[in-house]
Amino acid sequence: QVKLVESGGGLVQPGGSLRLSCEASGFTSSRATMSWYRQAPGKGRGLVATIDSQSTMTNYVASVKGRFTISRDNAKNTVYLQMTSLKPEDTAVYYCNVENYWGQGTQVTVSS
């Protein structure tokens, strides 16, 4: 059974940092592209960042470029999202995605 479990969300002040983690189980995640999405209140779910199976290629939505970094550790079946210089507009539920599978999401709230 495929399972994705996100962690690391929380409440942070503007300008702060958080590191999200997503641990995958039930399949060989090292062969798959993995992504982070987010969904803000009242909005649709949108792509934040993607990393290929061997960490040779990453892509980011324009609004997070230079502030967020996606990485992965295939030995741990885990993908990370390091978020810095956080802004109130980064407030959302963040989801891990691989193929057709989704985690339960982790809430990130940026507020003073």
Could you explain how this protein is built, in words?
Helix content is 0%, strand content 52%. The chain has 112 residues and is mostly beta strands. Strands 2, 4, 5, 6, 9, 10 and 11 form a 7-stranded mixed sheet that branches.
What is the strand content?
A: over 45%
Determine the fraction of residues in helical runs and give it as a percent range: under 10%
Average pLDDT, rounded to a whole number, is: 95
Overall spatial form: globular
Biggest β-sheet strands, sense, barrel: 7 strands, mixed
Overall structural class, as computed from helix and strand content, comes to: mainly beta
Describe what is shown at a glance.
This protein is mainly β and 112 residues long.
Pick out its properties.
112 residues; mainly beta; seven-stranded mixed sheet; four-stranded antiparallel sheet; globular
How are the elements arranged and paired?
Layout: E1 3-7, E2 10-12, E3 18-25, E4 34-39, E5 45-51, E6 58-60, E7 68-73, E8 78-83, E9 92-98, E10 101-102, E11 106-110
Parallel strand pairs: 2-11
Antiparallel strand pairs: 1-3, 3-8, 4-5, 4-9, 5-6, 7-8, 9-10, 9-11
